[in-house]
């Protein structure tokens, strides 16, 4: 994009072209908050949506665009992908905006690790999501006498009760990233925080290949036995809709699922329940959406700076995340406008960060680079689809990671 010399309104002459994967009802509603915010500042929006939860399809399109010398202005991105593009020198330096708004002081350390490279801010964090949540239909639970489970055994008993009552216990979409999202929570429950870190972040072979990992895979088999027969290939938001409509009891999914409940007019506590995956109440596996600005020729453009600045404004962080289901990427935003799940999300995040129990999500690109993440996806999905048993899955995982490293 070439800046045109204009005599009037020179600063924001160009539209921003934004590549993102926010295409579900709840995601689109949140995106509209961003678009609306930019409109009030006279920044035009050119939409470049690439459907596909977790963003793999979006990242493929991005690579093609960059290869053909036509990078979008701003790109929704996660964790290690940001570091990868920064290493390639593709991202604009946002330090001037960051300094003006004091990002260093208000963006949590865990996010800075993926937003700053060699002292240079390279992306603007929009939110913090976390993956170890369960979403439940309250009426379905109530009518089957089920209380919120706090251990794996209680969860398994609740699933059995729903199954006996003829309700689909677990809503799931069989796509690799969704299988991995469920595995994030199940593995955290089975391995505990130290084991999760050792296996997925440090890639320690003993942890990857240990008994607790086998337990995690066995639990995935129980989950697989309790999804409906049409699960394969289903989009995540359609699985959420099954819980919203009372066709299913539970969905294990990141808190973007809350956006779907809200856009369907549902209220937490009355219509649906949110709780941490049993056994992971004190941990948070997070992923943060950020907008990386592609270098359009040396310095950050006025439009990119305006977009970054709008994203980090405290009022936007509140308004956007209330709708998206995530929590603010700044530590100084009030929880006043958030619902009960959002308030819990903010509290959990702060507590996990303080107690050393905040970990990057393996499933959403915050534990390892894409090559290792994808190697893990392959094993998790092959096992989920019954290609091999839990014991084989453990050794396949160790091998896949050692080859990908
Ligand atoms: C993103 C969320 C998005 C979800 C499903 C995650 O990787 O962080 O913002 O809603 O994928 O598309």
Largest sheet: 5 strands, mixed
By CATH, the topology of the largest domain is: D-Maltodextrin-Binding Protein, domain 2
User: Could you estimate the helical fraction of the residues in percent?
Assistant: 40-55%
Number of strands: 14
Number of domains: 2
Strand content: 5-15%
What is the CATH architecture annotation of the largest domain? Answer: 3-Layer(aba) Sandwich
Rounded mean pLDDT score? 95
Kindly provide the radius of gyration, computed on alpha-carbon positions and rounded to a whole number of angstroms: 21 Å
Give the neighbour order of strands across the main sheet. 2-1-3-13-6
User: What is the CATH class name of the largest domain?
Assistant: Alpha Beta
Number of helices: 18
End-to-end Cα distance, whole Å, is 37 Å
Q: What descriptive keywords fit this protein?
A:
2 domains, binds beta-D-glucopyranose, four-stranded mixed sheet, 14 strands, D-Maltodextrin-Binding Protein, domain 2, 405 residues, five-stranded mixed sheet, alpha/beta, single chain
